[in-house]
Amino acid sequence: MIEQVRAFNRFYTRVIGVLRDQLVGSPYSLVEARLLYELAHHTDGLEGARLRRLLDLDAGYLSRILARLEAGGLVQRSPDRTDGRRQIIGLTEAGRAEFSTLDRRQNEALHELLAPLSAERRGSLIAAMRIVRQALGDQTDDQPDQPDRRTVVLRGLQPGDLGWVVARNGALYAREYGWGTAYEALVARVVADYAGREHAGSEAGWIAEVDGEKVGAVFCMRSDSDDEHTARLRLLLVEPGARGLGVGGSLVRECLSFAEQAGYQRITLWTVSLLDAARRVYQRAGFTLDDEAPFAGFDQPVVAQNWSRTLHEL
Q1: pTM of the predicted model, to two decimals?
Q2: How far apart are CA 73 and CA 157, in angstroms?
Q3: Which of 247, 264, 283, 150 is CA-nearest to residue 204?
């Protein structure tokens, strides 16, 4: 694992030009460009100690960089209005203009890097970067986690989606809960049942996307019983990297809305008790627990649950 991380670091630092003295053809190093970025995004300036924490730099090294940028007319220091012993560091007008040019050049360089990739590959790349950041705790004491404002887009099923649903369910639940192929086989049967029937407006499935990447799915299907007034929510799935974005809630709401428009009066679902996040989504959507019982169908014992709700309350 250590060698894989080091190999990635060597590759990525070469791709983004960290090892060069100058960044994207500018006269600035990566450290200097990052300093300009922080000051440009703190319009009231930053106290020296706070800037040092943001950049995780030695005080002497930071002082030398600031001196160079100050000599170039890009940075200025002024006394803190609340504490004269401290100095506030900020950009001059020339500094802001220089940062604007540097920022544009960096955007153009990244556009060239991403342009050869397909939309799907770009989405996968961004998702992988997001996972790395989240796994390594991407935050500082000056910039706590902010709400993720990426847009969740729901769409109908397209060719290839059904296979993706089976594959991702099997892989994720095996990794996260240790379920064997029995669960994947169950998902495959449900998907095959959906694909082999005439839906005629009574059944549907949706894929959730973020940044062009598939991150979730759900199906609204007819009840297994002969009750034509009851629908069934099936195979709700949310990718780990998209959890916390409201993907599950959006998919469930879409399913409920469709079920009501299709004329169903009631909707049910089957789940297991250890899926805490899914249970909270169902509860927020108005589902209540009907019954539960032990179940040993996924190569390990679980507690199976049936939930339901009426639809006129939407």
Answers
A1: 0.59
A2: 56
A3: 264
